[in-house]
Amino acid sequence: MLVSQILKSKSDDGVVTLPPGTIISRVAEVLSARRIGAVVISPDGKKLAGIVSERDIVREIGRRGASCLNENVDTIMTAKVVACARADNANDVLQKMTDGRFRHIPVLEGDELIGLISIGDVVKARLSELHMENDALEGMIKGF
Ligand code: AMP
Question: So what CATH class is 3-142?
């Protein structure tokens, strides 16, 4: 299965982004309102400046207390983002996520952001593929 197929299967293929300089409490508000686990930090919705996940926020609150919520997201985001391309294989993407211990990966075309997939999207797509394979095998065995 390819990343492009996973993107197509998502009900909402838009990526939630916020510009550099956003305060952390605003990021938390967006994560909560949109029911997502990570936001891409981008000046224009296309160029990738970083990624910030709920883990970054919780870690910082644990370290320094809630006062960090008034600070700039640039201080806690991951600037060295691992990304993938539409034509990448889902298993390779899953491997990247496992090796890097993260659950979100932006999809780029050239330097432009075109989507984001989570580990949940990959697992869901893989499960439906397994169900289809299972049904096909069952059909062959039963002679349908
Ligand atoms: P996550 O598991 O996605 O909530 O993120 C765990 C940690 O990895 C956080 O510090 C994120 O900022 C970072 N992170 C999330 N996605 C990526 C990515 N695609 N590339 C690099 N780091 C990431």
Answer: alpha beta
